[in-house]
Amino acid sequence: MSWNTFGRVLRFTTWGESHGPAIGAIVDGCPPGIALAEGDLQPFLDARKPGQNKFTTQRKEADEVRILSGVFEGKTTGTPISLLIENTDQRSKDYSEIANTYRPGHADYAYDAKYGFRDYRGGGRSSARETAMRVAAGAVARKVIPEVKIIAYVAEIGGDRIDPANFDAAEIGRNPFWCPDAAAAKRWEALVDETRKAGSSLGAVVECVATGVPAGWGAPIYAKLDSDLAAGMMSINAAKGVEIGDGFEAARLTGEQNADAMSPGENGPEFAANHAGGIAGGISTGQPVVCRVAFKPTSSILTPVASIDRQGEATQVRTKGRHDPCVGIRGTPVVEAMVALVLADHKLLHRGQTGR
Amino acid sequence: MSWNTFGRVLRFTTWGESHGPAIGAIVDGCPPGIALAEGDLQPFLDARKPGQNKFTTQRKEADEVRILSGVFEGKTTGTPISLLIENTDQRSKDYSEIANTYRPGHADYAYDAKYGFRDYRGGGRSSARETAMRVAAGAVARKVIPEVKIIAYVAEIGGDRIDPANFDAAEIGRNPFWCPDAAAAKRWEALVDETRKAGSSLGAVVECVATGVPAGWGAPIYAKLDSDLAAGMMSINAAKGVEIGDGFEAARLTGEQNADAMSPGENGPEFAANHAGGIAGGISTGQPVVCRVAFKPTSSILTPVASIDRQGEATQVRTKGRHDPCVGIRGTPVVEAMVALVLADHKLLHRGQTGR
Amino acid sequence: MSWNTFGRVLRFTTWGESHGPAIGAIVDGCPPGIALAEGDLQPFLDARKPGQNKFTTQRKEADEVRILSGVFEGKTTGTPISLLIENTDQRSKDYSEIANTYRPGHADYAYDAKYGFRDYRGGGRSSARETAMRVAAGAVARKVIPEVKIIAYVAEIGGDRIDPANFDAAEIGRNPFWCPDAAAAKRWEALVDETRKAGSSLGAVVECVATGVPAGWGAPIYAKLDSDLAAGMMSINAAKGVEIGDGFEAARLTGEQNADAMSPGENGPEFAANHAGGIAGGISTGQPVVCRVAFKPTSSILTPVASIDRQGEATQVRTKGRHDPCVGIRGTPVVEAMVALVLADHKLLHRGQTGR
Amino acid sequence: MSWNTFGRVLRFTTWGESHGPAIGAIVDGCPPGIALAEGDLQPFLDARKPGQNKFTTQRKEADEVRILSGVFEGKTTGTPISLLIENTDQRSKDYSEIANTYRPGHADYAYDAKYGFRDYRGGGRSSARETAMRVAAGAVARKVIPEVKIIAYVAEIGGDRIDPANFDAAEIGRNPFWCPDAAAAKRWEALVDETRKAGSSLGAVVECVATGVPAGWGAPIYAKLDSDLAAGMMSINAAKGVEIGDGFEAARLTGEQNADAMSPGENGPEFAANHAGGIAGGISTGQPVVCRVAFKPTSSILTPVASIDRQGEATQVRTKGRHDPCVGIRGTPVVEAMVALVLADHKLLHRGQTGR
């Protein structure tokens, strides 16, 4: 079945295929009275291309978003906010081959098995193009949680990790990898370049930290904050794993090593560590919320891969020409957006039930 | 806020605190005409204690589940199925200390921050006792998907992994660890025993494989099968990470290594590998659905950990007496149950929209 | 399909068949910290038998409700509240006839057409027995909206209407009809008695007024307050019509006659009239919320009615022995409960999005 | 709060204000493989102006709908269908007066009380303009239920009723009132004209009949078919009452009069009458589904009505110039659309749980 709405109180619905006339999103449940204009969203869309300063005016390649409803005299009315981006890049390609072939690792075969047929152009609805709308909707969500600051960055490419000791937030916007470690960024430049020339691809791990989240957000038992974060991030194209706090590393620690000891503090407890990643029992503790997403390497590589066509006959699939050797990098602003959407939703959920 | 319903078409709601009179669950949306009786559920509850044969008659320690509605003349009526387990083990403990203290790593502080106060006895609603109802509800879900076989097992304890070459499904029920590798089970016996004597605790990784899932289940974009699996598993107590297929390892493979090449087969394509874990684009491909959950080590250890009390004053918390050194093991039947519930839900979702 | 949950933030789920061991409800999303005990709910269940003082101690015939979760030290914890009533009245009747016959006007045929078979004893899930749980859940909801006062009464039986000029709220609890007009109650006594002796049945109209509802509750466009009220009331057994304010009479007024003119007041506007029934554009205006439900006459009458059996053969159905000649009367506490549940839900919805 | 999605499996979300750049709707959950093009929707939008043949090419005044996603090669893909209508009629009016005044009977005051401020131009989100999207979405829904035929018509204006004996379906499209009784249409012409000249307004009652609905649709207990129909219709602007079958008249019948006797038939039972309006126990019986909506007279009349302004000061409101004396008439295509949407949703719900 098709289910294109995410969220419980602050709900957003996306629509649009890669090669349709446009893509869009509706954000419903946004509180009224919040200042909102295209200028609040566009920078995040511009930043989808790594390496560019968020406030650049060079927008030719970026998608231009329009707000078609839900805002009046510069402020949200509380009614649904419709966002739309026109698909201006309508390249007329010869799709006859792709139409009849299932690319391994992509959703082609699965979509056909489910629906009976699919819009095969550029991946149709399964294309990563849809994530542009998540970024736009995420920008709206950030306005609902101005007290929260969210930063995502690439922590690992092809098994090569950043060194936490070299962490510099300002570095994130200065290289094409959203990498907070200048030395790692340099290594990655060579690695990715090498991979591109070889016609191969690499996976990546994106980490996201949200600070300023107060204690108390999250709705046990089946709308736990970590549960909703996991769902949001696993829904991103190419995502194969999700962690909160120490994640799989926590499974390798002892109880003593994993403890987040508490001591008295001015505004709530002071924590000696944050192995939990800011969430305990599915509810935020006031510590930074830390999560991580693993992205697999794209299957669109120059090396031929055995596959089948729609008639079930053996064939081979290979990408021609220029390809993106590490799609996971582009997941970074999408991860930020999903975290923003989940946190904003939970702020409203919490307020609804407790009045706080 | 409180949100205790999981699922979209096949929906289950749990209720009950650790020290209340009972715990229960409602399963709503179950198709009519399915044979169902307590005997279909009880073995799964009995099996929550590892090492026991599922069909044992020694049920004294296990919880006895009753079906109070939704079944008539031995078959489901299509109306809500109410399950109830009485809390017979009402130990009168002295809770004054726990009432006033926040145990680090548990949900105590977070619940108080959210709700203003909490039922502190045995963890109240945050207790793992709730998972008994998931296991019972999961047993109902299995009846909806008789074509699917689900097996979960512990793949790793305290960093010590099973060897896939030694995998023997029959071994799973023969040791106290749901371990499919006899050699690993032996090592773990020593490791866990050692840890218990030291008053410490270990984490674990549980893996689950579902075979017989046809291609086509999953509802893009925000009810993707992997998304809902991630949510379901992250909602389990102590879960800190979730993987589908190769998970975080996929992020360290190249495109060539990660490819699941396809070739013609009799019933749909043959796959050369299953790095994707049976899900592509959020929809099942017909391959085994493989997922993994990381459980952190329990914070209930004999070593004192610094914490604060309800007045914000410094204090120390330590567990007294006998403790469970590896709670992650007990997550195994719960993981199976959540996978069953998600798959059954998706079978009905898919049928609703496509008629298939 | 089966869908047994009502509400969006304050959600309740009912379960249980007429002749199963018990019936119950889960109320999820209730704010924490509200004083709640069986004594808050029992009077409303006792009052399901009209004519009895709400605080009577003669409870033998009434159902005894137990709170099994969600309350600690006398206050709601914010976790799900499980309510249960045991079906103690297990009369062993000979159901062979009913099992094989479809009673016209009841849900028998429709349930079989939908599910393939049904629990036919006493109407199974379609029985009005389920409404006891609505009344219990409604009592919980009232605690969420202490600022609101809700009164329902029978306004019409068999076409005979109350005279608004004779309205006396105190009269409602003094006669077996929840009638606020003593003269009408007298007429109805004769009318209903007459109907019972004739083996026939009558319909009824129940009116409900909620005062103290502030302006602003309701969520356009598809969770309008009047929309949710209509859904809640139409879901009651035997309901065939719903009105807000003047309802169908409004369709017969002119714009001048229907106007609710406003003038300055101390706490918001003063209204010259309330044709709108307290709701405009789907949002409460601060005026009393007025709604009305039409209940059809029961089909369980002594007069034989032509019908068919499960094999499709012609047969006749007639009720034997004592029957209830006006089931609509019993809808009165159920209408109050549904109004309470909808209003409480909307209070939380409104607070969630606007913070007010 | 804002809640702009309707439906459970086939869900549609509308957006857009009266004087924003556009209005739109997303239809999600539509089965794949259904032929769909603008030509399937446009006639229903054209028909919003009564008196015009559905297949007219004179579309200047009607809104032109575009399908922006969810359709490929002429068939639905199963992904969300985005519909958009541009607001071309951007009259620059002087809104200063309306901005500061609350029109009685409209949603103005209620929206301000809820959100703190509102888009006052032409009613903003509360405007009937939104119903154009319901009509478009309803046209999509009809494609999901080709077996069902839905006809709505005005049954009463200002208390003057049609005569069922004069019922002629073909007459509906021949007069400006969607009236199936030629004699009534004549009377209404005079009545409405008179009312317009007097600067007054009238209410109306719209009736809708759906034939071809099989037995079994509807999801007890809280997604009963009549419940969802009531919610859908009560959500239409100016709706004040909803009836199923005999509605309030049923409350005035005896059990004998209201009985829908059954006898053996070829395809399921034959019914002697249809007082129930095709729904029993919340599930369709196979009989025509009959429902009715009461629309109040518009408050936009030439007669001044006392009101208050935003500062709480006394003022008067009167509509200037041309006004619509009976807005209820325009509810007719909207009622059809909501009935189509509810029935299509229930077809999929039923199929999801029962496989039928």
UniProtKB/TrEMBL annotation, chains A, B, C, D:
This reaction introduces a second double bond into the aromatic ring system. Keywords: Amino-acid biosynthesis, Aromatic amino acid biosynthesis, FAD, Flavoprotein, FMN, Lyase, NADP. The gene is aroC. Pathway: Metabolic intermediate biosynthesis; chorismate biosynthesis; chorismate from D-erythrose 4-phosphate and phosphoenolpyruvate: step 7/7. Its cofactor is FMNH2. SUPFAM superfamilies: Chorismate synthase, AroC. GO terms for cellular component: cytosol. FMN binds at R125, S126, S127, N237, A238, G281, K296, P297, T298, S299, S300, R322. Homotetramer. This is Chorismate synthase. HAMAP family: Chorismate_synth. NADP(+) binds at R48, K54. It catalyses: 5-O-(1-carboxyvinyl)-3-phosphoshikimate = chorismate + phosphate. Its EC number is 4.2.3.5. Gene3D superfamilies: Chorismate synthase AroC. Reduced FMN (FMNH(2)). It comes from Qipengyuania gaetbuli. CDD domains: Chorismate_synthase. GO terms for biological process: amino acid biosynthetic process; aromatic amino acid family biosynthetic process; chorismate biosynthetic process. PANTHER family: CHORISMATE SYNTHASE. Belongs to the chorismate synthase family. Pfam families: Chorismate_synt.
